[in-house]
Design goal:
The complex is a heterodimer of chains A (about 280) and B (about 260).
Chain A: H1 10-16, H2 25-53, H3 64-76, H4 80-111, H5 113-126, H6 135-142, H7 146-170, H8 174-182, H9 187-223, H10 230-239, H11 243-271
Helix pairs in contact in A: 1-9, 3-11, 4-5, 4-7, 4-9, 4-10, 6-7, 7-9, 9-10, 9-11, 10-11
Chain B: E1 8-21, E2 24-37, E3 41-45, H1 52-60, E4 67-72, E5 75-76, E6 84-87, H2 99-103, H3 105-109, H4 114-127, H5 143-156, E7 161-165, H6 173-190, E8 193-198, H7 201-207, E9 210-214, E10 221-226, H8 238-259
Parallel strand pairs in B: 3-8, 3-9, 6-7, 7-8
Antiparallel strand pairs in B: 1-2, 1-4, 4-5, 9-10
Helix pairs in contact in B: 4-5, 7-8
The chains are: A mainly alpha (about 280), B alpha/beta (about 260).
């Protein structure tokens, strides 16, 4: 991944996923389950072939059952949960702060030209810098503790969420505002009852983007000087050549990201009921 | 219709508007003077780009005039307000609200108590024949139904004035006539002061107490027709068609000017 550059085209992809939306839900679920099982089977087959034919040291590519075994072992020894929790807490705090800041400032900048003119050049200057390039600076400034990791997530997730929020407000049909004002809406009511709901769909897309990005950057932050976290597990696995542990942590990250996305999607379905045809 | 005897509700005094197009001033509206009486239905009629929508937007308070002023009840218009309801060609319903929530939007802004507000919303949905669709979202309605909701939403807020900007322009011919009938029926009940922008002569003659024919860009008033027909009108009556052909003749020169 080339950092943020890819993300500009991602909102659309995130709306529909790779599958599109044309297949019936039941059939789609069966297909997805089949695909996952097929992938696990292929993975087992390849690692089995490596073992049987002695192609290379099988320690490089443990099969899925070995990885699941490693997960079970870590869980039973109490190693797993503290690491998952550390990552989750950092993402929760860092992402929430980023979302709060980005949406708050984005709503202001979307509405008030002065704020937009002040913020835009700064954001445009910082945005092209891959956020990962700023990580060592964060460590120098804030130290190697929780602050730099949480702050780094906040920093990295701010930009996509800020920009989608500004865009969400800017693209609101001005006629909606006219209609509301002719019905007697004053600025506060206008904001709460028109601007906010009209901008919400795109803001939620930005939130999903930001959440995905937080799992993306936290791992790397945890590579450097963390004592807990899934990123730490991967780095630790590399130091001690524990490939099953590396894979297990990576898979957990994938599942957490997937879960986060599903959560925001569920929220979207709830608050954007009006968009669904029926 | 003794219009002169009634108080004038809207006074348009020397209102003109110049738009800046690519740094060059383009006059859209030459000074217009017009008085609209209380409970009168006036149609602004003219070819596209004759400034009739511009004039309506100025009365609505959406855009300021370059010169002149609009008085409503003697008070200059400076911003949009709940005293002037607007119905747009594009319906402009709030898509995240249900039909009934859309209709109750104005009353709820004023803090009207829920039971009273609901009753009011229901009454106006019944008036436009959409009581059965109260819980739907605008996205589930046809164009004609959306425009009925928009009319109910404007009426439920009880403005003295309703400004309609080619409200039936996006509808098919049949729906259009049905809604004209409805509007005419509603007006006999509600007695609002209505300014109705259209480019359909037939529509104007069917609805208006007075038809203001405007010239093409820059817009100004070319001729005013008092429509002396009964409240319930017959589109095929000889007097109706006489108005139609008379206005057509006046308007033809203007349309021709646009197309040279």
């Amino acid at each position: 991944m080339a950092g943020m550059s890819l993300l500009s085209s991602m909102p659309e992809l995130m709306q529909t996923g790779l599958r599109g939306q044309s297949i019936a839900p039941g059939r789609a679920r069966a297909l997805r389950l089949g695909a996952v099982l097929g992938f696990l089977a292929l993975w087992s087959l390849v690692s089995g072939v490596v073992v049987v034919f002695g192609l290379f040291n099988p320690i490089f590519l443990p099969g899925p059952w070995v990885v699941i075994g490693a997960l079970g072992e870590m869980a039973s020894k109490g190693h797993l949960w503290p690491n998952v929790r550390a990552t989750l807490e950092r993402v929760a705090v860092g992402f929430s702060a980023g979302a709060g800041l980005a949406i708050g400032l984005g709503l202001l900048a979307g509405q008030i030209r002065l704020v937009r003119n002040v913020l835009e050049p700064v954001v445009e200057l910082l945005r092209p810098i891959p956020p990962l390039a700023m990580l060592p600076l964060f460590i120098v400034w804030v130290g190697i503790g929780e602050g730099s990791k949480v702050g780094f997530i906040t920093y990295a997730t701010f930009f996509p969420m800020f920009l989608t929020t500004v865009h969400a407000v800017r693209q609101i049909d001005p006629l909606l505002v006219r209609a509301a004002r002719s019905l007697g809406a004053r600025p506060v009511a206008l904001f709460r009852r028109v601007i906010l709901p009209a901008a919400l769909p795109e803001i939620l897309t930005g939130i999903r983007l930001g959440l995905a990005l937080s799992f993306f950057v936290i791992v790397i932050a945890e590579f450097i000087g963390a004592e807990h976290g899934l990123g730490y597990l991967i780095n630790d696995g590399r130091n001690f050549f524990l490939v099953p542990q590396m894979l297990a942590a990576a898979i957990l990250l994938g599942l957490l990201g997937y879960g986060g996305n599903a959560l925001v999607r569920a929220l979207e379905r709830r608050v954007l009921r009006w968009q669904q045809p029926s | 219709m003794d219009r002169a005897a009634r108080a004038s509700k809207i006074q348009i005094q020397g209102v003109s508007r110049v738009f800046g197009v690519a740094g060059r001033p383009a006059p859209a509206l030459e000074p217009v003077d017009l008085e609209i009486a209380d409970r009168e239905l006036v149609c602004l009629l003219g070819p596209s780009g004759c400034g009739k929508s511009t004039l309506l937007n100025i009365v609505a308070g959406f855009i300021p005039p370059t010169a002149g002023q609009v008085l409503v009840n003697g008070v200059p218009v400076t911003a949009p307000g709940a005293d002037r309801g607007v119905v747009f060609q594009e319906y402009v319903l709030f898509p995240w609200l249900t039909v009934s929530q859309n209709v109750e939007f104005g009353p709820s802004l004023r803090g009207m108590a829920a039971p009273e507000r609901r009753a009011r919303g229901r009454r106006y949905l019944e008036l436009v024949g959409l009581a059965d669709h109260a819980e739907k979202y605008p996205g589930q309605l046809s164009g004609g139904m959306k425009q009925r909701v928009a009319i109910a939403r404007a009426l439920a807020n009880d403005p003295a004035i309703i400004l309609m900007d080619e409200p039936f322009g996006a509808l098919d011919a049949q729906t259009r006539e049905v809604l004209q009938d409805e509007l005419s029926r509603i007006q006999r009940v509600e007695h609002k002061t209505i300014v109705f922008v259209t480019h359909s002569i037939r529509e104007a003659v069917y609805l208006a107490d007075r038809v203001i024919v405007m010239t093409s860009a820059p817009g100004r008033i070319k001729q005013v027709f008092e429509i002396d027909l009964p409240e319930v009108r017959d589109r095929f009556a000889p007097e109706f068609t006489r108005y139609e052909s008379e206005i057509t003749r006046v308007l033809k020169d203007e349309v021709a000017k646009v197309h040279v």
